Amino acid sequence: MGIVMSQFFKNSIVLLLFIFIGSNAMAQKFTTHAVKKGETLESISKQYKVAPSTILSYNKEIQQGGTIKPNTILVIPVGAKAAQDAIATGEKESVSLFKKEEPVQAEPIGFTTHKVRKRETLYGISQRYHITEDDIKRYNSELYSSQLKKGMKIKIPKYRRVKPEDNAINEDDYEVYTVAPKETRWSIAHKYGITIDSLLVLNPGLSKMTDHLSEGQELKMPKLLGSTIKGQETQLYLSYTVPPKMNFYRLEKQFNVKSDEIVRLNPEIAERGGLKEGMVIRIPEQKSDPGEVNTDNFIFYEVKPKQTEFSLTRKLGITYIELLKLNPDLKDGLKAGMVLKLPKDQAGDFEVRNSLVLDKIDLLDSINPMNRPKLVFMLPFRLDRLNLKNKEEVREIIENRNSLKYSLGLYSGALMAIDSVAKLGISVDVETYDNQLDLSKTKEILSKDNLADASAIIGPLDLASLKEVAVRAAQNKVPVIAPIPAESDLSLGNVFFSYTSDSVLRDKILAYVEDKLTNENIIVIADEKSQLAKAMIQKRFPGAKILEVKEEKKNIGINRDKLASMMSEEVENWVFVETDNFKLIASVVSILNSFEATLLNPEVSKEKVKVRMFTTNKNKAFDNDIISSTHLSNLNFTYPSVYREVANSAFVEAYNKRFGDAPDRYAVRGFDLTYDLLLKLAYKNNLMDVSKIIGETEYTGNKFSYEKDSSSGYFNQASYIMTIDNLRVVQITD
After folding, report:
1. Which domain of life does the protein's organism represent (predicted)?
2. Whole-model pTM?
3. Please, which residues have CB within 8 angstroms of residue 499's CB and are 6 or more apart in sequence?
4. Residue 81 in contact with residue 54, Cβ under 8 Å?
5. 333-353, pLDDT tens digit by residue?
6. Quick one: which H or E segment has residue 411?
């Protein structure tokens, strides 16, 4: 905005002159003329019987003795009075115009009352009653300091109408232009090929004291030759202030415009002997052809407060000129809140989610000690069924009751997280409830305790109770964290599903395989329950071979010879195993390990057939004791996972010290989930708002990247690709 506004300040004397002759200009009538090839200022002045100096006074972009570019739109005063002035004063007409006394403002002959309707503008009302905006303000002084409001009653002056002259302006030569967001008088004038002075002449109701334009405001503009502005390609220009030590070579590189074109557009360069510091010149705006603006070919970034051109371009990995081509509004200056387009394949120090660029924020460095989160845990400890005096019985119940094992693991990890953030200066209020895995107990808790002031609720584990809590919490916009896999039909925007869904995990592994695939031989082994997975694999890899699974009563298996015929000796075989039947997994794993080239062609090779095993859903069947870990390691078994294996770490040591045992994966998840939640709430105590700007976060054994579903809540999209190598489960990194 600074560059453009400086030009306005330099033209302030011109605007002041228009204030003094404003009423006279309103009485004068004008027409427009589109310059034809070969026409000169003198020939046009003779055609309209107007002195050349008069035309020059209303069209600052042309000069005495200079050539006029074809299709330039000129504003021409018309009527008997203009002709008489031209004959009487000749070349001195422009001087006499500025010496005329300002006529006395006509007094209204009466008033009418107008009730403002929704979305009405001052300009629209002035056009309706054929008066100026200043006329309305003059008799409604409150409008000098406040905006129009629906229902407001204002006085409309009525004037005695004068019979129009016979040669009045032809309205067919004009069109109504609606001001778009962020447009300026400068940009609109250049769009139509006229000056700001001419724009003010054509729209005398515009304020002379300010250059403000309102979105939706209507302006009278000349029709372009042969058409209207709509759909036309017009040349726009940048107003550029020459900095120190600037030369034509640097200008050409910066704006991609030839130096002779710059000189042609700015004759003062030649007149002053070259580029001079502080000179304000016009630069043709280079148009980029972005195609259709959508998320298929662009990503988008919202400018943050205090960002500079330097910091922004360094962050986004793009030059300012490239950014300007895609975002012409930048010519008015960089402003917080602007949404910028970037190429789809743009790389930089950022993360992209749903085509939106997210800033990487270090939560540990962004803690606000004034925030004091309140966490509510609602988990099924079922203490009513435990005899805490009998430790052996309690230990056995914990081992055999998954909900209790998960709750205790999750909660113990959460306690470690609360201790950890306390050391960072974060104070946390905690309330814990035992909902006993029972909906009626959950309702009882909700009826007794007001959870409206909670920052977040973790749990419950059962779907019925989760729905009940989510519905109640939604009334106060309290987020509810589902800590376990939850296939839910909840259409509430306050639920955070922290456990990455099976469909996301499937897409993750298929994308990985697709990226690594060269000429491998893909085979799919899927039982009846896994037809969806089979279909997804086939869709991704149309050339995949499908091996039928035999399912007869209690027996399930595959045809070993049939599988052998599908295997390749030349390339590696990638076999997808899709089932939750541990017997089928054990059989397939055993067979795949046994394959050797001698089985297929004993005279050619003694080498083993190369096999790698995959699955899109590593369920608990793959952990059954009858399945050999050595065989899985030999096959480099690869799968998607919500969590990764935890090595020795400060968390593991601290947990062992406090609880006397190593943390299981539930405790690790409880720590990571709660630690992530508390750091985000310490940054801003509103999880919904934070999730819009925080990208992927990762901790001891889990990571989180929440995306808002348009019709539901927030879903974690983060996951890992794991493989078993040399009897160790390791994370695959690209």
Report:
1. Bacteria
2. 0.56
3. 482, 483, 484, 485, 486, 642, 716
4. no
5. 788 778 888 887 777 767 777
6. helix 402-422
